[in-house]
Specification:
This protein is α+β, with helices and mostly antiparallel strands. Helix content is 30%, strand content 37%. Helix 2 crosses helix 3.
Length: 201
């Protein structure tokens, strides 16, 4: 089981396809970070493939996978967005958008046929990219007097914190990031140093 400060996503954009009874299904997989980015990708595909019958999709955002949406775009309810989303769930992915575009071939596929086609197209696109495990980092700000800088820097170095920004004057301010699972430990160590103030950004 993965530690709770990791998540799985994809490394790069990829494309897949599936054909059934004349209908063509083109699948696109994107790593995404926001709903704004998703809207841009959807608009781009609608413009490029404007002659397609359906643009169905599913996405999931957030390290906790709490934000998601499925869209059948005119296909019978549950036949497109849900099987696409099923591929995201079965691979335990987040920060991902999958769009499957259908060119209708003139022959109806029926409910089971549609579900299978959208699932197969999404799977084909996922099979052509790399699934990667990434760490979740938290960002903290620490404030302290210049006279105790050595004590603070010693803790940060030992905990392998990544320093993002620093201001060293009489009163010092430093922003750093640390793997989420190490957050409580480094916080406890810093708070033991008299005169140190730490806040989660």
């Amino acid at each position: 089981m993965l530690p709770d400060d990791t998540y799985k996503t994809i490394s790069a954009v990829s494309k897949g396809s599936y054909k059934e009874k004349g209908s063509r299904f083109l699948a696109f997989v994107f790593p995404v970070k926001s709903e704004e980015e998703i809207k841009e990708k959807l608009a781009m595909l609608r413009k490029e493939y404007h002659d397609a019958r359906h643009h169905c999709y599913a996405y999931r955002l957030g390290f906790d996978k709490s934000v998601f949406r499925i869209n059948d775009d005119g296909e019978p309810s549950g036949t497109a967005g849900r099987p696409i989303y099923g591929q995201i769930v079965s691979h335990d992915l987040t920060l991902i958008l999958i769009v499957v575009i259908r060119y209708f071939g003139g022959i109806k596929l029926g409910i089971p046929g549609l579900i299978n086609a959208y699932k197969a197209a999404a799977k084909d696109a996922l099979d052509k990219t790399s699934i990667i495990t990434k760490l979740i980092f938290e960002e903290y700000q620490v404030r302290f007097d210049y006279t105790i800088m050595n004590s603070v820097m010693k803790v940060l170095k030992e905990e392998e914190a990544v320093i993002i920004r620093q201001e060293f004057e009489n009163s010092c301010k430093l922003d750093f990031s640390i793997r989420k699972n190490s957050g409580n430990r480094i916080l406890a160590r810093l708070q033991k140093i008299s005169g140190v103030s730490v806040t989660l950004q």
